[in-house]
Design a protein that fits this description.
By secondary structure, the chain is of the alpha/beta class. The chain has helices spanning 17-27, 43-53, 61-65, 82-91, 106-119, 133-143, 174-177, 181-184, 187-197, 279-285, 296-309, 317-336, 350-353; strands at 8-13, 33-39, 56-58, 72-75, 96-98, 123-125, 150-160, 200-208, 219-226, 231-237, 239-251, 254-260, 269-273, 340-341.
Length: 369
Amino acid sequence: MTAHPPAVRVGIIGTGGIAHAHAAAIADLTGEMELVVVADIDADRAAAFAAQYGATAVTDAEELLAVEGLGLVHICTPPGTHAPLAIAAMRAGVPALVEKPTALSLAELDEIARVEAETGVPTLTVFQHRFGPAAVHLRRMIDDGDLGRALVATCETLWYRDDEYFAVPWRGRWEVEGGGPTMGHGIHQFDLLLSLLGPWAEVTAIAARQTRPTDTEDVSAALVRFESGAVATVVNSLVSPHETSRLRLDFEHASVELRHVYGYTTDDWTFTPAPGHEELAERWAAGPSAARASAHRDQFAALAAALREGGTPPVALSDARRTLEFAAATYASAFRGEAVAAGRIVDGDPFHTSMSGGLVPWPPRKEKA
């Protein structure tokens, strides 16, 4: 009888809101992942979190990374800490799983990549929408050529955050959060778009601060051309009272649409075959019927399997970089007033070191830290 690999021993750094989603998903993967230790600079919050999920609490990331047998650390802290914590984890020999965005800039991400190459320890990014059963099924149909060539797509993250949301000191600051909805909110939706349509070639964008008390944008919109020839629009907003997340992809042989807010189920997708291709509806319907939302669990399950069995863990830095570069290109295009081609933002470009590029056309509103 073949012995099953032991569960991956996991630590979580940062015990704020998103960490609870991580801990709940880990708890649902009994035998595959086990939460053993958490860290937070707020000792009381760390202790309460640890008690809730059956782990040990510490107040120092270095102490957490020294725990014996730790196989993975989840980084659930504010964006400005992601790169240094990921680098510390890799140097400690512990793979890091980082909440989005992986880093505040392409320069930070490239430094993570340098340390990854030096240590041989990976840093991975949470992009859970890639792993929902319906998205996996759609990607398979695309790869099999069933749908024909991708022609046009629409990607919308239309959310609402009031002024009080930005009262949190680190929110709305380029130097701490990296950007507005393009970096911290719509990134999940357009990452799913990019994972389905492949490499993007060029972005033409605008960004604006419409109403919120933030230094960053609260709205952005981009026109995108893909290497395949497909074209798309990508809109990110935090000023939309009727919240919706929408993704529509039109192929030669079918239209596929997703409508949800913060996480989709298979029932949130609509499949419409083109005339003469009605049989594709049967292929789509034969896919997964699971009602489970596109939450962290599916990505964690794939990651646990890779770590336990020696496979390639998702989502690698190369994948995360393409998505982060798309965000950087959106800002660069918006603030420079010109199209930005993939691969253009390199070392020495101000948008390589900061999503603002030092060219934000409106004055700051946040009080100085």
